[in-house]
Each structure stands twice: as C-alpha cells, then as structure tokens.
C-alpha cells in the first residue's frame, strides 16, 4: 500500500532576487493535521518561503505540492480555494466595519451568504471574541485585533492555516494565550506558524524547522531544537547579542 502524499510539500524550492538566493533548494513536508513551526534569524528566508507557499511569490525553481498535486505558482486566491488559510502581517479587516462583518466577508469568498454568517459567528465564538462582534475593527486593542484577524482565516474552514508571526507585538501573557489558541485550532486544521518568539515555540512544543541562509539547518522536536548548539549559534546567540 502506498502512503498518502503529505498535505503540503515543497521540493527543492528556490527563490532568487538577482544575486541573492533567499530560499535555496528547500524540501519540507507538512502532514495532514500537523502543527509545524518555522523559525530562523533575520534574513534566513522565512518570509520568502512563506510567500512562495502562499502564492505571493512564484518560486524561481522547485515545486509546491498540495496533496501530491503540483500547485507551484498558484496565486493566493487559488491557494485559498484549495483549502489554505493565510494570515499575513497585512490586516484583513477593515477598520470602519464591525468585526463580524469583516469575518463574514472573508468567509464569503468561498461560501454563500447564509453559510458565511454561520461560519463567522462560529469563528468568533471559537476564538473567544464573540463579545467583540459588533465593534469596529479599528477600535480593537492589538491582541484582540490579532484574534479577529485569525477569525477571518479560520472562518472559511481551511484544511491548512499558515500564520506569519501571529504573536508579533504581543506581551508574554497574550503570546502564551495565542499559543494555546493555536494548539486548539490545530484540532481542526493543520497549522504552519512562522514565528520569532522562543516562548511561543516552547509553548507550542511541536516539530520545528529552522531556517538559516535560505536552507533548512535543523528539523526536530522543539525540545531538541531549543537546546541544539547550532541553533543557539545562528539564532539564539545572535538574538541574545
Ligand atoms: N524582495 C526582495 N528583493 C531582494 N532581496 C530580498 C527580497 N526579499 C528578501 N530578500 C533577501 O532574501 C533574504 C531572505 O529574506 P527574508 O525576508 O525571506 O528572511 P526572513 O527570515 O523572513 O527575515 P526576517 O525575520 O527579518 O523577516 C535576505 O537576504 C533578504 O535581504
């Protein structure tokens, strides 16, 4: 019997900007239902890799496979239709609109009107922010805003959620809460998180892929990665310095 293909995989994925090789022959695979963290020091290639996965960049070479199907070069909308939810640093909610309206609009891209209403309410409930439904997004505190943005990503019901620095700008307590929430989201969705915060990586405690100079330096359990001297050298050492 042949094993089913991974949910998402890259094969020798490479992205160059002129003479800079931002992502250099990276082959990574994410299983159905997995929760994976991607880390690395500044300039390691995480954001570029993220953008290649989400269709914001077309890689120079290599492939992106979704359940074994070649989806290299699909734009973000086509990636969303496959079942990939993406949270970038760019706000998805409109400041002047009530939160629930913004979440409905996000769901509406893939679902009908009535279903989108149901999905938006369910997403707000799940993220513990149903009480903020009618508040204009522009009036939310930073942490609340991050949760509301997350609601726009999960509301359509993606199989995989890819998050770019979901705890950016959060304090320790909010970071810990967000880590718990992401583990909870992982019950229903595979999740890939690009993150800097080591507290977060510790709290998530799953497989970690470490990028360095456009390549995968180490891929292992959070415990082992956090005590790996190579990782300390390129990441923690530099971060501490
Ligand atoms: N649009 C671009 N044009 C030219 N060079 C780029 C571009 N985007 C990224 N790079 C270069 O590619 C390399 C990887 O950058 P990237 O932003 O992917 O790293 P990163 O790990 O996400 O870093 P950070 O944590 O600082 O966001 C860096 O050397 C960067 O200068």
UniProtKB/TrEMBL annotation:
Residues 8-238 form the ABC transporter domain. The keyword Transport applies. It holds the Pfam family ABC_tran. GO terms for molecular function: ATP binding. Keywords: ATP-binding, Nucleotide-binding, Transport. It comes from the Bacteria. SUPFAM superfamilies: P-loop containing nucleoside triphosphate hydrolases. InterPro entries: AAA+_ATPase (IPR003593), ABC_AA/LPS_Transport (IPR051120), ABC_transporter-like_ATP-bd (IPR003439), ABC_transporter-like_CS (IPR017871), P-loop_NTPase (IPR027417). PANTHER family: CONSERVED COMPONENT OF ABC TRANSPORTER FOR NATURAL AMINO ACIDS-RELATED, HIGH-AFFINITY BRANCHED-CHAIN AMINO ACID TRANSPORT ATP-BINDING PROTEIN. This is Urea ABC transporter ATP-binding protein UrtD. It comes from Craurococcus roseus.
């Amino acid at each position: 019997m042949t094993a089913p293909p991974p949910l998402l995989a890259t094969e020798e994925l490479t992205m160059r900007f002129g003479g800079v090789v931002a992502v250099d022959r990276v082959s990574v695979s994410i299983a159905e239902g997995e929760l994976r963290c991607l880390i690395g020091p500044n300039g390691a290639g995480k954001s570029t890799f993220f953008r290649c996965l989400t269709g914001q960049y077309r890689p120079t070479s290599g492939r992106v496979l979704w359940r074994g199907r070649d989806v290299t070069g699909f734009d973000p909308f086509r990636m969303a239709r496959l079942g990939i939810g993406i949270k970038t640093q760019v706000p998805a909610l409109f400041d002047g609109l009530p939160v629930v309206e913004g979440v409905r609009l996000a769901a509406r891209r893939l679902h009908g009107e009535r279903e989108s209403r149901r999905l938006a309410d369910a997403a707000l409930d799940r993220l513990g922010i149903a009480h903020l439904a009618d508040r204009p997004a522009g009036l939310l505190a930073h942490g609340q805003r991050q949760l509301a943005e997350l609601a726009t990503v999960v509301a359509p019901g993606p199989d995989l959620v890819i998050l770019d620095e979901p705890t950016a700008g959060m304090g320790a307590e909010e970071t810990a809460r967000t880590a718990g929430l992401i583990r909870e989201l992982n019950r229903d969705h595979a999740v890939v998180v690009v993150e800097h915060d080591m507290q977060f990586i510790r709290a998530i405690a799953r497989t970690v892929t470490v990028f360095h100079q456009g390549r995968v330096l180490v891929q292992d359990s959070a415990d082992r990665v956090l005590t790996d001297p190579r990782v300390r050298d390129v990441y923690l050492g530099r971060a501490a310095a």
